[in-house]
Amino acid sequence: MPWIRRKQREGGEYFYVVLKQEGIRRGERWLYAGRTEQEAQERLKEVELSLLRNESLPGVQRGQKALYALMDDYLADCDRTLNPGTVHGYRKALTRFRDYLGRDQALKRITRKAMQDYRATLVDLAFDSQRLALGAVRAFFNWLLDAYGPESLREDFGLSDLNPAARLRLKRPPSQPKPHLSPEEIRKLLALVKKDPRDHALLLLLFSTGLRPFEALALEWKAIDFEAMNLSVVGKGGKWATHHAAVATLPTVGRP
User: Is the dihedral of CA 159, 162, 133, 15 positive or negative?
Assistant: First the structure.
């Protein structure tokens, strides 16, 4: 039977109805259920009633579920598998796409030609932002295919192309050297926080390992190997990575 799960995210609490479902990734399906306990309880009753009657989940039959609700369900699934920064980026990218679609947000309207037109509106963005904008839509359609299957997407939602964002290419601009701090600038920054052991250790850790700020802030003691001078973190895409720290860094951090 389904159950309610609460998730703390930027902007407050979000509630989801979770149910076991075979044949999809990780065997669980998350459905957005609102921002309050009362909304979540009402959505839970709807889902339970549909399951008892062996019906499609509420709002899904004949493709009547709104695009924003489908995207909320997708982001709910992302919440349990991706780091908060990635989910935040996907949410912004999907909101941009919905704003581009305007009032007519029927899934069947989203064709490959529509995606090519959307790509043309992104040319003023930085290349990485363009890639995120298209990648989030592509990932959303992959999730739809995984969650509902090709027959439902064609018959219930009217999609002729199961993933209209697939195989869309971006023209990569000439590579530019990334700006970086000089050794002298790093020394000046470290000197500014020398009287604050926490900030000094944190900056030293970032400079010596190349960690992203969210990776450093999520570090736990068990992830640090003081003997080998290594630390393990969950990076982008939920993947584990091992970083070697400079000799002076970990002793500065100290042991628990």
Answer: positive
